[in-house]
Amino acid sequence: MGKPTKTDVLIVGAGHAGAALACALRRKGFAGSIILSNDEAHLPYERPPLSKACLLGVPSIDKLLLREQDFWKRANIDILTGCRVAAIDPGRNVAKLGNGRSIQFSWCVLATGGRARALDCPGADLSGIYRLRTFDDMLALHDALSSAERLTVIGGGYIGLEVAATARALGKQVDVVETQSRVLSRSTSRVVSTFLENEHRRHGVRLHMERSIAAIEGEDRALTVQLSDGTCLFTDLVLAGIGIDAETALAEAAGIACHAGVLVDSAFRSSAPNVLAIGDCARHPNDFAGGLWRLESVQHAEDSANIAADTILGRTVSYHDVPAFWSDQYDFRLQSAGIAREADDMVVRGDTERGPFSVVYLREGRIIAIDAVNAPREFIAGRRLIAEGASVDRDRLADSGVPLRALA
Ligand SMILES: Cc1cc2nc3c(=O)[nH]c(=O)nc-3n(C[C@H](O)[C@H](O)[C@H](O)COP(=O)(O)OP(=O)(O)OC[C@H]3O[C@@H](n4cnc5c(N)ncnc54)[C@H](O)[C@@H]3O)c2cc1C
User: What's the CA angle centered on 373, arms 177 and 239, to 5 degrees?
Assistant: First the structure.
């Protein structure tokens, strides 16, 4: 084995968070060396279109790249694609790559994202069952969809609903199976869930609520999905959209504190000095939600990368960004800011049948979260009100004729 390569910053994972960190470091004037390693074979690319536009058209990685190919060279960021970091030793500041090489780092940043969960019902190992996290996953699903008539989506979360909407646009027959009594039950209120369910039904999706999967059956590939109530769905392929698990294997093996994510402080420092964690894999203290949270959104990947860059630059900073997320389905965009879980009141504004509308969530009279459907101005104003911790006049808030920005 040769001598280790030396670098000031080793970023493990070149998804939204890892790429954003490398860019933020350069933007903020960091002149040291940066290695960005990724076990995927591609340059950093956007994930949101994977469940939307990519499945509709002819997929091309070039259209998804977060930065054009030359950017990384110009910015003097050394990208290792198809290169897995196999282990890190925070005590010695050394990382071992899958190809046997070693890297000596001053800082190591874990931006390892998450792994799409696999089904664990009988028949879960049949072919014809897909997951969607990476560009290569999308290619496989795209190929399978092109010759399929019927798709069964397991899980009424963001990914499942987005793929269902896209598959309907392709004219496929779509069934969605959800164990809870409503879609997106962990992320939003019943008002928004009902709107989403109505939209999916209006577009011809068959929703099977409060059903789990008893078994998936077929000779060698999935042909039927048996539900817990005895319903049998005939299908050509299955998409499992049942969430992700944070990719914490490296951190755990290195003895770094993890609990459903890599545990970090508000500067994204892990329990090991000189090791940070950002993006989907990091469980951080969140001022807007209270307690420790792991957020899965592009916005959070970028916000956490920004703070980590300051931490590396020796600036004293603390994460205080309002969580934000969006989802595109059919002809509507749902934008959400804040975390509504602790709300004790909510106000609905607009037309919940067809949109646009928003739902504003309050706690002790202060706005803590908003969901906005085809209402981008409401979303922007709502996000500002959340950041300010604003108390508002409830009667004016309930008057949809008064724009949210007028309440700021
Ligand atoms: C289909 C889809 C649609 C989405 N739509 C939206 C949306 O509409 N809006 C939104 O806000 N968010 C959306 N998201 C979520 C968003 O993409 C994620 O929150 C974001 O990608 C998180 O960035 P990350 O860098 O933390 O993780 P990732 O983007 O997952 O990147 C982590 C990278 O690290 C690599 N890696 C892991 N371990 C190692 C290792 N040991 N060595 C080297 N590399 C490693 C992984 O292969 C991966 O490439 C969507 C996600 C998916 C999958």
Answer: 25
